[in-house]
Structure formats: C-alpha cells, structure tokens
Fold this sequence. Notes:
By secondary structure, the chain is of the alpha+beta class. Among the domains are: 22-204 and 242-294, 3-Layer(aba) Sandwich (Rossmann fold); 302-326; 357-407, no CATH class. It has 12 helices and 11 strands. Strands 1, 2, 3, 4, 5, 6, 7, 8, 9, 10 and 11 form an 11-stranded mixed sheet that branches. A hairpin with a 7-residue loop joins strand 10 (274-283) and strand 11 (291-294). Mean pLDDT is 77; it is low at 234-241, 432-441 and 443-449. Residues 28-288 form the Brix domain. This is Brix domain-containing protein. It comes from Chironomus riparius. InterPro entries: Brix, PPAN-like.
Amino acid sequence: xxxxxxxxxxxxxxxxxxxxxLDLKNAPHTFVIHRGLSCGYLVSLSRDFRxxxxxxxxxxxxxxxxxxxxxxxxxxxxxxxxxxCIFTRSAKSLSMKIxxxxxxxxxxxxxxxFILAKDVLSSLKKQFVEExxxxxxxxxxxxxFTDEGNHTKLMAQTFQNMFPPLNITTxxxxxxxxxxxxxxxxxxxxxxxxxxxxTVVPTGVNRAIKKIAMKKIPDMNKFEDISDFVLKSQMLSExxxxxxxxxxxxxxxxxKGNVEAGQSGIRLRELGPRIxxxxxxxxxxxxxxxxxxxxxxxxxxxxxxKMRKRRADKKILKDKRKKVQDENKSKKDKLKDEHKMKTGxxxxxVTESDRKLLKDAEDAIDDIPEDDTxxxxxxxxxEPEKELFENAIKSGGRKRPHIPKFKTKSFxxxxxxxxxxxxxxxxxxxxxxxxxxxxxxxxGSNKRK
Length: 449
C-alpha cells in the first residue's frame, strides 16, 4: 500500500521474543550498587564485585544519585533478582549490605580492608585472565562456618544462596572455572573473601610432554632435536611443584591432556578482589525492620518485648491512617464523578430556547441574497455599474477558492510586463545598439520633445 507521497509503506517487523529456560529464571540474580559519598575506588570495587557475580548480574547497571532503593526493588520482580548488594561510604567507614529481595532479611557488614582486582593482578608474576571463565557461575567454598550462633548460620546460608546451586549428577567439569572462598575466623569474627580461577593440568607426565599436551609452544632454540627437548626436560623451570593433595581423579574428560579416570592437578590463580569484612547487624525486613542481631548492642528480653510492642503499635496506627486516607480518597472520587455527571448533562442537553435561537439564525442566513447585484439593488435602489462586480462574476464570486493542504498552487495573478513593439532579449537590453536600448532611447527622446 502506498502513502500520499507515493512511497511504499514498509511492513513493521515484530520483535522476536525468546523465552529463557526455567533453570535460568529460577537461578539467583543480583544487583550490585553503591551509595553514599562519591569515590573512585568505591565504583571500582562495585564493578569487581559484579565480575564475581557474573553471569547472573547486571554488569552494566547504570545508577544515579536520584535513584532510590524502592526503584531497584520494583525492578527485582521483572528481572528475577533475588539479592541486592549495596556498598555505602560514609565519612567514617565503608559498609556492605546484602539483602534478600523483596522482604529481607538484610545483613550489614563493616568493611575493614579490600584490594581491587587490578592491584591483585599487578602483584602476580603470571597474570591469568580468561573471559570465557566468566560465562559460568563460580563454585562457592565456605570455611569455618561451624559456630553455634544463629547469625553465623544465616550468614553462611546467605552466601550460599547468592550463587546458583550445582547439581553433581548433571554438571560438566568444563563449566567449573572459578571459585569464591568465604573464610570465617571465629577469634576475630572477620570474614575474608577471595576470588580464584581454576585450571586443571595433567600429572605424572614429563614436563616437556606436559607443555606439548597443553598446547604450549616450547622454546626449541637451545636444542638440536625434539629428543633433546624431551630427554633434557629437567633443565626446564616449573614454578609450581606437583603435590599429592592437589591431585584428583577426573570423572570426565577435559581438554589439554586431561583424560577421564586420569590423575590431574588443580591450580588456583587469584583474580581478585580481596575483601575483609565483619558482620555487625541483621534486620528482619528490607533494611527497615526488627534488629535480630547486633554485634555491639545487646538488649535484655524486656527491652526486646517493649520494642516489639512499640513497633506493633506503630504498624496499627499506620494501617489505621492508611485506611482513613483510602476512604477519604474514595469519597472525593465519588463526589467528583457525580459533579462531572451533573455538569456534563447540562452541557450536552438542548433546551427549547436553544432550538428557537438556532431556527432564527438559519432563517436569517436563508434570507441573505447570494447575488451581489441583487443585494446592491435592494439596499441602494439603483443598478450597479458593470465594472463594479465584473471581476467577481468572471472569477465565480468574491470568495477565495479552497486550497488543499497537500497542494502548493498559487492562485495569484502572474505579474505582466508592458508589451513592447520591438522587444529585445533581457540579455541584450543593457548592450549598446540592441533593440531594447534603442527603444529606451526613443522613449527618452519623445519626452524631451
């Protein structure tokens, strides 16, 4: 189908929608944001933490100062977000909060020290960064979370629920490329978080053959033959020695010389960041609720009961006020609708007086003569001159013709030039000896005479 301009309308393409698998929807997703005073290292720390939580996080989440926590909570249901991590910097300290969406609980940590990922990589002799390792969720390792306190169990459960669970029967070993370590120290009550990359290398093999099996190009400059390279492999340097504790038997075949039911060694390479923090508060709700645990403030049973009663009274009063507000709003809406109905009926009803006025106006319009000459005769009593309405009769009336919007035709009369007896071209009018110039000279000579 063509439009008014004659161009063919292109059919609109409907966007393709892809349904995510059920296991991806049910997997825990995380928002990582920062609040408080602006600081460069705070932004870098939040980005490094997002790298740890990949791929189930918004790596390019753009946040503004005007955004509130309610904005992220409202989006959590759309994007299947289950946890939110908030780094907050104040004038005194740096804190980290981990909240379960959308109704809590909220764990508040005080950050004692941290090292960014770029600083960790720069301190290593051999840096290891593989982007494909961030396509799968990391393995969670918890150490020393065996304290009898309920706050310690809740803390360990929160760390474990932030990452998707691993099914031992269906998981592929090639997808386990990273691990996150949470180590708890009962004496200092500090939790240390470390982030590592996992690599698997074959063991029980000559070092030279191991390099070839792992598809590493060896330096053959000092050897005349490949046999010299294999026989003199003790001359090669190896930074990591083979330990029996780090050797495992693989249940699946992997790449680079790691065969099924064979011995392979596990190597850990740190990726960063390093964060050391301490739990100091647990709240029942999403950042505003009853304090279940506090590291510094310990209250008695009577104080806890009084606080619960005070909180319950506040909630009852809040619900009562909200109910009154809803009732008042419904009354106002009802009155407004009634007022609209009353005023609206008056506007659209036609009374007898209105009909009479409309009829008189139509009769008055019918009595007006359409011919200008007849109107002139009735009013003045004389016949008009022919030249008075001659142009109007030729053009069909004095009214301007209707010009549609899509037409740009001009109905003005073209400008006419005086006819000359001996016309010359416009180019030759300014030249000496041309017909146009002679015509002007003749007109000038007649005036002088």
